[in-house]
């Protein structure tokens, strides 16, 4: 049975995103965090989670917002209806590792509660309009994840 036309573009997008992510991780690591940690107007970290099903380490280059000594992540999944894998992994195993530039940290993840999200979301979408568009595309509320360093 031939594949339907809409599946081909989705699969192509997924394959391109995966290739981009692998290249981003390699560049970040090879440069010691000098390349790939900043793109104009954006900061990126390497987030290492434990797979919720596999139990294996999974590395994701991810956009973050610094907030005092914490990091905010937006679980938008590019405007997809499903939660991103990294967030599912953090729900199962909230302790993770991050590489922020040259720094390596162990962090604990938690979802921002309703009050925190109500306070944070307007400033996030005013600066990064794509998150407002993503929220309009999905029926789920896009979570804000707070990573706090483990001391």
Query: Which stretches are poorly predicted, pLDDT < 50 over at least 5 residues?
Result: none
User: Which homologous superfamily in CATH is the superfamily?
Assistant: Electron Transport, Fmn-binding Protein, Chain A
Number of strands: 7
Side-by-side strand order of the widest sheet: 2-3-4-7-6-5
Number of domains: 1
What is the percentage of strand-forming residues?
Answer: 25-35%
Number of helices: 4
What is the CA-CA span between the terminal residues?
55 Å
Largest sheet: 6 strands, antiparallel, barrel
Instruction: Please report the first level of CATH classification, the CATH class.
Output: Mainly Beta
Query: Which of globular, elongated, flat, extended, rod-shaped describes the shape?
Result: globular
- Element pattern in H and E: HEEEEHEEHHE
Give me the Rg, rounded: 16 Å
Average pLDDT, to the nearest integer?
91
- Secondary-structure-derived class: alpha+beta
CATH architectural type = Roll
CATH level 3 topology = Pnp Oxidase, Chain A
Q: How much helical structure, as a percent, in the residues? A: 25-40%
């Amino acid at each position: 049975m031939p594949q339907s036309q809409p599946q081909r573009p989705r699969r192509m997008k997924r394959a391109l995103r995966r290739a981009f992510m692998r290249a981003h991780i390699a560049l970040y690591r090879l440069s010691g965090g000098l390349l790939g940690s900043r793109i104009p107007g954006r900061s990126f970290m390497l987030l290492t989670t434990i797979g919720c099903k596999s139990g294996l380490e999974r590395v994701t280059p991810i956009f973050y917002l610094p907030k005092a000594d914490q990091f905010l992540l937006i679980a938008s999944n590019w405007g997809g209806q499903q939660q991103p894998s990294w967030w599912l992994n953090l729900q199962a195993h909230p302790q993770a590792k991050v590489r922020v530039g040259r720094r390596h940290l162990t962090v604990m993840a938690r979802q921002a509660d309703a009050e925190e999200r109500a306070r944070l979301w307007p400033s996030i979408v005013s600066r990064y309009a794509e998150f407002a568009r993503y929220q309009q595309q999905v029926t789920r509320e896009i979570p804000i994840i707070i990573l706090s360093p483990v001391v």
